[in-house]
Amino acid sequence: MAQNDRETTVNSALARWPSPWQAWYTVALLGLLYIISWVDRNILVLLAQPVSQALGLDDRQMALLLGLGFALLYAIGGVLLGHFVDTRNRRTVATCGIILWSTATVLSAFATSFWSMLLLRCGVALGEAVLMPAAISLIADLFPRERRGLPVAVFTSIGGVMTIGSYAGGAAAIGIAGSINGVVGLSVWQTTLIIVGLPGFALALIFALSATVPARTASDAGSAREDGLGAVFAHFRSRLHFLGPLLSLTGITCIFSLAIIIWLPAVLIREHGITASQAGYLIAIVGVPTGLASNFFWQWCATRLQRRDPQRGILRTFIAPALLVAPCYAAGLLTNSLPLQLTGFATGLFMSTAFNVLTQIAIQYYTPPQMRARMVSVNFLIISVLGYGFGPLAAVEIAPLLVAGVSGLRMGLFALTLVTWPLLVIAMLAAVRNADGPAEHEQ
After folding, report:
1. CA 150, CA 242: separation in Å to the nearest integer?
2. Which among 46, 85, 122, 194 could disulfide-bond with 170, CB atoms 3.0 to 4.6 Å apart, if both were Cys?
3. pTM score of the predicted model
4. How far is CA 112 from CA 33, 116, 184, 197, 249, in A?
């Protein structure tokens, strides 16, 4: 009888999970959406020159469009939308987000001023703020805890690849736009924005009709509804000594890493006289394989260290990239040689990608299941404010204080990297030292 009871319990637990085919199909859909979102997010980086000329914008205004304009709604809206992901129908919330960012991307082609473009960039940010919390929440219900490592790594690896790979996608879209520009009667930059925005509508329909969105367990669903935003922030405050540094690591890194990623095409175009498409392809050639290899390498390191040290293993994986990421980026920025600039960028990217994948794994490992999406949103709030909001603009403001001319922007990025580095090391040490253990938060 006892044996039968145990078998019944095991079978019930297994029956609660979707089939592997359904689970991985949904991860694949989420991955495709993540790819599209990165292209829509970063396309304006490659179009900075023609857009600034068409709308009469200076570097400061472009920095606001590329950074703060995206960050404000991504940060504030992300926390609110993360709450809806935890408490409402995830299929509906995610589908609405996809449609919103796709619509804003297409309409950006018809912006006529800084303010209209800023408003539409805010729409892109608000829509995209849904995707990561929804994906992390869904993966937790699609796979048992012991099998989540691989799908999380697969999904987050897309971010590591598309941070740079989006430049290749954008460059291809610019090429297509140039070839059909005579037919549509719009500027190349306008046609490009339409091209990259349209696929989102098709994927939104496919996701709404075919994605597997399992019901939450009764306990998790009930807890999520009881744990409002006030309870989430109360939990965050009670563990501030640990969660504060942990969730800040990626944001601090992004102060300089996102600023470099956003401004590197402009640096290459200005200093080496290459086109936007050439800059996009060059950055993608060195960045895509680096980001992909880095994502799985750091996930592999975290898994091995966590087995040896269940309390701090994942956190100890942050030590090497925290110590090395800034020097690697700075070495490339200090030279005006194109090959050395790209080499420094690639090695810095290898280190900075660690923070993206390790933080998402740590959130699943160290936080309560009913709060995961909102903790992801808090993490992205910090990334948005520091990385998108502060970093690109700070580099522009620092540049004229150091060097005049075309190399000023590069030296502004160099100074920003070195100034930020000590803060990153301090946050890493605090997270490792203050780890309070995952056991009481596991499912």
Report:
1. 25
2. 46
3. 0.71
4. 28, 6, 18, 18, 38
191-228 tens-digit pLDDT: 999 999 999 999 999 999 998 888 765 445 444 444 56
Report whether 282 contacts 268 (CB < 8 A).
yes
SS (H, E, C) the chain: CHHHHHHHHHHHHHHCCCCHHHHHHHHHHHHHHHHHHHHHHHHHHHCHHHHHHHHCCCHHHHHHHHHHHHHHHHHHHHHHHHHHHHHCCHHHHHHHHHHHHHHHHHHHHHCCCHHHHHHHHHHHHHHHCCHHHHHHHHHHHHCCHHHCHHHHHHHHHHHHHHHHHHHHHHHHHHHHHHHHHHHHCCCHHHHHHHHHHCHHHHHHHHHHHHCCCCCCCHHHHHHHHHCCHHHHHHHHHHCHHHHHHHHHHHHHHHHHHHHHHHHHHHHHHHHHCCCHHHHHHHHHHHHHHHHHHHHHHHHHHHHHHHHHCCCCHHHHCCHHHHHHHHHHHHHHHCCCCHHHHHHHHHHHHHHHHHHHHHHHHHHHHHCCHHHHHHHHHHHHHHHHHHHHHHHHHHHHHHHHHHCCCCCHHHHHHHHHHHHHHHHHHHHHHHHHHCCCCCHHHCC
* Better-scored residue on pLDDT, 440 or 44: 44
The token pair at 280 is 């996009």
More confident residue, 345 or 219: 345
Judge residue 366's burial from the number of C-beta atoms within 10 Å of its C-beta, 0-12 exposed, 13-18 middle, 19 or more buried. Answer: buried
The tokens of 118 are what?
A: 């800023």
